[in-house]
Amino acid sequence: MRTPAPLCSFAFLVASVAPVAAGGTISVPKQHATIQAAIDAAVDGDVIVVSKGTYEQNLLFDNKTNVTLKAKKKHKVIVDGQENDDAITVYQSSGIVIDDLIVQWGDWFGIKIDESSDVEVTNCTVRWSGGDGIHVESSNDVRILDNKVHECAWGGDPVRLESTTNSLVEGNKLSGDGAGVVLDSSDGTAVHKNDIEWCQNGIEVAGEGNLIAKNDIRAIVDRGIVVDDTAVGTTVRDNKIEACGEQGIFVESNGTTVNANEVESTGDDGIRIEADSCTVTDNTVKKPIDDGYRIEGSFTTVTGNKAIQAGNDGFTITSTNNTLTDNLSTKNRSNGFQVEDENNVFTNNKATKNGFFDLFDNTNPGGNTYSGNTWKTEKVP
């Protein structure tokens, strides 16, 4: 098993960049008629500056080091892949920067980064790709920053990382048929401050030691954030999730931390935990169609959360050996706390103004422990 990358605050949000050797400036089309000719001619430290226009080319960085490709004027350079191949491919290269291009009509991927390191894609618009907008595989220290990716065809994901480590996906505006961001067997990566809408799922996580933080996710067909059962050591915090067809946050991996998220108007549960030994703290769930929180794993700590106006129960506990402390459940259509299994501990929780009971314990007498809780109506064995 791979060792998870450490999560030290936001220390790994900024990848270290090796010093770039001093190079020259290559102008397109002044010095080279095509962008590919400029890439082929570039050496360590060169900056390729492209004048405005549409360039119908499929670009390849192959074994290049410390080369920057950028537009001379913002939003004035279009790289059109003509559906012949990926519009831009970075292969076995390092220190590559792709800045401020419009990339369109990639046959499968708009931009593909493969077996490379220290690559940055920034301020680009990627559209109309046949599959994923930005696709990264078998790479490390990749930064995808402040891009707009939309209209990916055939269920393509706006951003997808496969078998990639220590990377950053930040500040992007993403929409498309697939998931906004997919981490597939990718470790030690931060998905941070992205704006994601109109996707199948918002963010899908499979890999170790990843951080999902401060994203704005809305108008999602299925789930806002999905934490796969292989996603060991995932932290999901400070995200805003609204209007999902199913759950806002869905967790299948043991030991996941879900902290300080705001979830509203989901078509199913607000937050569902189907894993053990998770930590669920200081979240707020409003107006889900079903339960605010559904805890189906054991040995999970649920502290300081709020469930407000759920279509069913505020908190539903279907498993054993969980600890619930200082949670608020109010104005839910059914019960404040619905308890379906034993050996759970409830301390200093508050439930009020719920449709049926503030507490409904459907287990055996003495099956659960209650101390210091505040509720007016209860049904206990």
General description of the model:
It is a single chain. This protein has a single domain (62-379), classed as Pectate Lyase C-like, CATH 2.160.20.10. The chain contains 1 helix and 45 strands. The strands form 3 sheets. Strands 1-2-5-8-11-14-17-20-23-26-29-32-35-38-41-44 form a 16-stranded parallel β-sheet, with helices on one face. The longest helix is centred in the first third of the chain and has 7 residues, at 35-41. The radius of gyration is 24 Å and the shape is elongated. The two termini are 45 Å apart. 49% of the residues are buried. Residues 1-21 have low confidence and may be disordered.
Write the layout of secondary structure elements.
Blueprint: E1 25-28, H1 35-41, E2 47-50, E3 53-56, E4 59-62, E5 68-71, E6 77-80, E7 88-91, E8 97-99, E9 102-104, E10 111-114, E11 117-122, E12 125-127, E13 134-137, E14 140-145, E15 148-150, E16 159-162, E17 168-170, E18 173-174, E19 181-184, E20 190-192, E21 195-197, E22 203-206, E23 211-213, E24 216-220, E25 225-227, E26 235-237, E27 240-244, E28 249-251, E29 257-259, E30 262-266, E31 271-273, E32 279-281, E33 284-286, E34 293-295, E35 301-303, E36 306-308, E37 315-317, E38 323-325, E39 328-330, E40 337-339, E41 345-347, E42 350-352, E43 359-361, E44 369-371, E45 378-379
Parallel strand pairs: 1-2, 2-5, 3-6, 4-7, 5-8, 6-9, 7-10, 8-11, 9-12, 10-13, 11-14, 12-15, 13-16, 14-17, 15-18, 16-19, 17-20, 18-21, 19-22, 20-23, 21-24, 22-25, 23-26, 24-27, 25-28, 26-29, 27-30, 28-31, 29-32, 30-33, 31-34, 32-35, 33-36, 34-37, 35-38, 36-39, 37-40, 38-41, 39-42, 40-43, ...
